[in-house]
Amino acid sequence: MKRQRAEREGRKGELAAELFLRAKGWSILARRRKTRLGEIDLIARRAGTIAFIEVKWRRNAEDLALAIDEYRLRRVAAAVEAVAHEYADEGEDMRIDVILLAPGRLPHHIVNAWQP
């Protein structure tokens, strides 16, 4: 039951992140892109940049500080390496972003969150 609720809330968070990105001029290329190495929540394009986006939703804003860490970003980076060629055209920049969400707060978009 707890896992199902977390899944529903996570999907709501991903939808909120998608709407936020669309409002900022991004086109969504993929949602919940699964690879053998992990999952990428959103893949988006804007002005020659492809962003592979990890979305984190927490019920309490205070919990967002612990929502993302190097381990999670490394998993996203591995998944990105597996599929980046499917989304990025020659000459486009690629990056991994994070969007943190909690009730009563504006989305916090961390640009280029992973820099190996």
Automatic annotation (TrEMBL):
Entry's InterPro entries?
Restrct_endonuc-II-like (IPR011335), tRNA_endonuc-like_dom_sf (IPR011856), UPF0102_YraN-like (IPR003509)
Which Pfam families does the UniProt record give?
A: UPF0102
Q: Tell me which PANTHER family the record gives.
A: UPF0102 PROTEIN YRAN
By sequence similarity, the record places it as follows: Belongs to the UPF0102 family.
| UniProt name for this protein | UPF0102 protein GCM10011515_12310
User: Can you name the source organism?
Assistant: Tsuneonella deserti
